Amino acid sequence: xxxxxxxxxxxxxxxxxxxxxxxxxxxxxxxxxxxxxxxxxxxxxxxxxxxxxxxxxxxxxxxxxxxxxxxxxxxxxxxxxxxxxxxxxxxxxxxxxxxxxxxxxxxxxxxxxxxxxxxxxxxxxxxxxxxxxxxxxxxxxxxxxxxxxxxxxxxxxxxxxxxxxxxxxxxxxxxxxxxxxxxxxxxxxxxxxxxxxxxxxxxxxxxxxxxxxxxxxxxxxxxxxxxxxxxxxxxxxxxxxxxxxxxxxxxxxxxxxxxxxxxxxxxxxxxxxxxxxxxxxxxxxxx
Length: 287
Known about the structure:
The protein has 287 residues and is of the alpha/beta class. The protein folds into three domains: 5-59, CATH 2.40.50.140; 65-219, 3-Layer(aba) Sandwich (Rossmann fold), CATH 3.40.50; 233-286, Ribonucleotide Reductase Protein R1, domain 1, CATH 1.10.40. The chain contains eight helices and 13 strands. The strands form three sheets. It has a six-stranded mixed sheet with strand order 10-9-8-11-13-12, sandwiched between helices. α1 (96-108) packs across α6 (233-239).
């Protein structure tokens, strides 16, 4: 019986996946039967069927999983990531609700979160966006401002040692950041497309790239929504990091933090310790 080879999924196109084996060779793989759910970043065991093709026999245990869901289905974005980089820009305007949803996914998955405001060359619009985003810096998130088409060196220290996934709406400049970090991107993408015998879906699938031996970057398709149907209210509540010191001390165990007497969270809002915008964002998610 042929021995199994270890590899990592570096791109997915429907049932076809690019798997990078030890030494850097990329092969085309499929899953057994109708098995799905194998995603970019997964470490897998592969059985070769020919020199450039194989079958994924098993998926190794994951250290993290980033996914979104609605009432009907789940969509896995990436596996084994240690950092989510949320890319926003002033033009086109970003959805603050989407940012909040991504932060909740990061907090619930115990994944580090980094916010990047791109297109800083648009000075006036960037200042306006910063006035909105300052809240997130105040509560403890790292916020970087850059122009991907000019200089991305500010990002380097934050990428070191991480497997980061870039997420954000279409048009925020994720591709520009990738291209600046990986000038040979076209070569890498071409290699993956050749392995999969397909180049038509490269902008709609997640791809994993190596920055160095210890730092990796996953580019994901643009998001317009990020469903959190798989999270309980208590998980969402705890994911609002500034709420944590005040949770569990309300008068009622099932407090909704809307109008109940003795609500510790509402008291924190009235004392300026929690921003009313964030409480409103929480209410919008759990209504």
